[in-house]
Amino acid sequence: MMNSWQRNAVITSGVVLSLAVQQVNPAQAAIVSYNLAGTIQNGLLTGQTFSGTFSYDNSLLTGLGFEFLDVSQVNLNFFGSTFTAVDDDSFPDSPKVEFLDGILLGLNFSTSSFTPEFSLIPAFGSTEATFSYIGTNDSGSGPVQYVLIPEPSTVLGIIALGIGGFLVGRKR
Which positions ≥6 away from 58 have C-beta within 8 Å? Predict the structure, then answer.
């Protein structure tokens, strides 16, 4: 039989988990953040890496057709330099996050103020998104990988589930 502390811990874990995994209504949704990374696979910069993060407000996403959302934050690292939204060639109209029927295609970002010039190019199925650069006498590209950064409530729900499972398993 569980003591009162264990019973309360399991009940609390269950409540936290149920609240954490509850489906979020898009009208109530918040800022969504992604990490991006990749390695250039051809050209003179083969093997060079790029990485970054970006965020956007998903409450504006309808999930129908092609959609382009403003980026609320972007931070890209390439070739020893860091780039933000103001470095995009079309700022303040860009950068944008592109979607098809609610599915992320990728971040659209281009800069020609850096050598080499580079772009992040969205594509159908975010697995086809590309990083492309053009240098003085060279060009190259590599795939971009996008990874959703979990919301803190999701992480708390997973932790609560783990604690609850541990306590129940420990009793057996």
Answer: 26, 29, 30, 31, 32, 69
pLDDT of amino acid 124: 81
CB 135 within 8 A of CB 116: yes
Mean pLDDT, the chain, integer: 82
The pLDDT tens digits for 98-121 are 999 999 999 999 999 999 999 999
Domain membership of residue 101 (yes or no) is: yes
Indicate whether 84 belongs to any domain: yes
The pTM for the full model equals 0.71
Q: Contact 58/29 with Cβ under 8 angstroms? A: yes
pLDDT over 90 at 40, yes or no: yes
Instruction: Indicate whether 11 belongs to any domain.
Output: no
18 in a structural domain: no
Q: Which domain holds residue 139?
A: 25-171
Q: Alpha-carbon distance 23 to 10, whole Å? A: 22
